[in-house]
Structures are given as C-alpha cells and as structure tokens.
Write a structure and sequence with these properties.
Elements: E1 38-44, H1 48-59, E2 66-72, H2 79-85, E3 92-95, H3 101-111, E4 116-119, E5 124-126, H4 130-140, E6 146-155, E7 161-164, E8 167-168, E9 185-186, E10 192-195, H5 196-202, H6 213-222, E11 228-239, H7 244-247, H8 249-266, H9 272-296, H10 300-318, H11 321-332
Parallel strand pairs: 1-2, 1-4, 2-3, 6-11
Antiparallel strand pairs: 4-10, 5-11, 6-7, 6-10, 8-9
Helix pairs in contact: 1-2, 6-8, 9-10, 9-11
Length: about 325
C-alpha cells in the first residue's frame, strides 16, 4: 500500500513524527515485487493522545507492500474521529467493544493477509525505515520465521531515552522470567516480527493473558524456531503513567511466572527447576551485596569469603533435597 500525502494532524505529534514531512518516502514500486507483504495490527482503547502518532509512524514508512489494520475497543475519547480522518490510508479499521488487547490483536490477525506479522500498540512508534529493514532482511533470508530488532523506551516525564537490545542468550533464557528486560533476556515487542505460518501454528494469543501476552508468545515461538536479530532500533515505546507495564507491574510479573512454568512443563522439565534457579539468583545477589559492603569497609577477607559463598551458593541449592521438595511443592501450587 503506497500512501499519498497524509492529512493534517488532529493532535500534537510525538517523536520523529512531529518533524516528519506529511508525505512518506515512496520506495520504487518494483521493490514491492520482492519484499514480503507485512501486516501490522494496532490494538487501541482510549489512546487518542498517542494513536495519531502511531498511525503516522506506520504510514510514513512508505513500505510498498503494507497491510495496516487498527482494532479499537470502542473508545469514548477522540480515537474514532482520528481513525475516520485516516480512513483512506488504512487497510481496515473498526471500533467496537472487545475482550481486551489480546482479543483485539487476534481479531486483527484473523483478517490480516500478510506473509509477515507484527503488532504496534497505540502508544508506540516505528522508527523511520523500520519496515524496509524488516522486509529486506526477510526477502534475503526466506528461512527466517522470527525476527527482532532493538527498541527505545522513552520516559514521558523526563524524556530520558533507554535503548534495549533484542536477544536471547540461550535456549532457556526466556524461562528466567525474573531477568526479563536484561541484555540477553529480552525482545522489544514492537520491534519483533514473525511469519504468518508461525502465528497460525501457535494459534495466536491466549486471550485471558492481558499483561504478558508477548512474553508468552515468544516462549511458544522459541519452542518452534530460531530467532534472527537486526542490530537496528526499529521502534520507540512511550513509558507513561497509564501504561499497563508501569501501573500493573506486579500483576504482569505473576502472569510471566505462570507462562514460564507452563512453558517449562511443555518442555518436559521438573516443576521445581525454575524455583531453584530463582532461589539461586536471589542468593547470589544477596552474597554479592554483602561482599560489596565488606569491601567498602576495607574488610577484604570477609569480602572474599562472601564472594566464594556467592559462587558456591547455586551448587548448594541444587543439592539440598529438603529445599528441592519444598520448592517443588511451591511451584506446583502456582
């Protein structure tokens, strides 16, 4: 879908969209002959403050083979007015009650016709040129079913920008949900794309997962295929007070824990294994903190002793049957 010049904005624009020309850089029509068709779904509910910037960040990509869908949950703010404003530039949009974000994404994916899929929340932005980079990589690597790039997180109150690298350091790294967000343990959701075949294989998102649906999806993808990575920033995410990941962090952690235990069981691992890893992680951090305190007080012998204990702690936990039994019971009750 090659987009003509966009209409004048109705709301203040964010990020690079604020200074962008209203007409996208149109890439040669011939590129559409070899670039895969990409479907992007934007779920939305009462995000009129952000959604216009999100829409323009997609349309201004100028991607020549785009299928862009917006699924709104029946917003009561000015979202519908904005969607009507861009009616001629969207492949499809609807505003009607739904059962939450995961349901909205599944609805959009059900009518999407792209070979490659992704979703972009209504308060996130694609970086300039993101879709061309994705399409070009996938055209050159037809074996790739799952691809992620880096993402930037923008703190709305301070305008501080943090870059998060996409990457999974090992086949079990994502199971360690307590590390999610650390280098080697994280995929920025709006910078992650996958094949339609892979999406259909896992049958989309679990609709009762409202806070960690992307994490659960990555765990399922990881069981089926290899992740490819681009070392480019592909998206920007706004961190604001109404953000679910900010306001409901504790609930999100509980959802991630459930996803991790279920994935561990699917992979045939003992239920207590994740609990042991988590306890080992806590013990290691505690011992290292004690070692640093001794070091700050010039108590070098005590600091060294705590460091040795930190190194030995995981092995001691793994070989202590009483703790293993207690942790297995705890894991079974999640």
């Amino acid at each position: 879908m090659l987009t003509p010049e966009l209409p004048e904005p109705l709301t203040p624009l964010l990020g690079w969209i604020a200074s962008a020309e209203p007409k996208p850089v149109l890439h040669p029509q011939s590129w559409g002959n070899h670039l895969p068709r990409i479907s992007i779904v934007t779920p939305s509910f009462n995000q009129a403050e952000f959604i216009e910037s999100t829409i323009r960040s997609v349309l201004l990509q100028g991607y020549p083979n785009l299928n862009y869908i917006v699924i709104d949950g029946g917003s009561s703010d000015h979202t519908v007015e904005i969607l009507q404003h861009y009616h001629d530039h969207l492949s499809y949009w609807v505003s009607e009650p739904d059962r939450g974000q995961s349901h909205a994404i599944n609805k959009g994916m059900a009518i999407a016709d792209g070979d490659v899929c992704g979703w972009l929340c209504s308060d996130d932005l694609f970086a300039t040129g993101a879709l061309i980079k994705i399409g070009d990589y996938l055209a050159r690597h037809p074996e790739c079913e799952w691809l992620a790039g880096d993402g930037e997180f923008i703190h709305s109150e301070t305008n501080e920008v943090e870059r998060f690298e996409a990457g999974i350091r090992s086949s079990e790294a994502l199971l360690e949900y307590w590390r999610y967000g650390a280098p080697g343990y994280f995929l920025p959701q709006p910078s992650t794309f996958w094949s339609r075949v892979l999406w259909d294989h896992v049958e989309g998102l679990r609709e009762d997962n409202h806070l960690a649906m992307d994490y659960e999806l990555w765990l399922r993808f990881e069981e089926l295929t290899k992740l490819h990575r681009l070392k480019d920033v592909l998206s920007m995410s706004q961190l604001h007070n109404d953000c679910k990941t900010q306001s409901r962090r504790s609930e999100q952690c509980q959802e991630m824990m459930r996803c991790a235990y279920e994935a561990s069981l699917r992979r045939g691992q003992p239920r207590y294994r994740l609990s042991l890893k988590l306890l080992s992680h806590w013990l290691l951090r505690w011992r290292l903190a004690r070692s640093r305190r001794h070091l700050a007080s010039a108590e070098f012998g005590e600091a060294a002793a705590e460091l040795v204990k930190a190194i030995k702690a995981p092995l001691q936990v793994w070989h202590e049957p009483s703790r293993m039994a207690a942790l297995e019971w705890n894991a079974g009750s999640q």
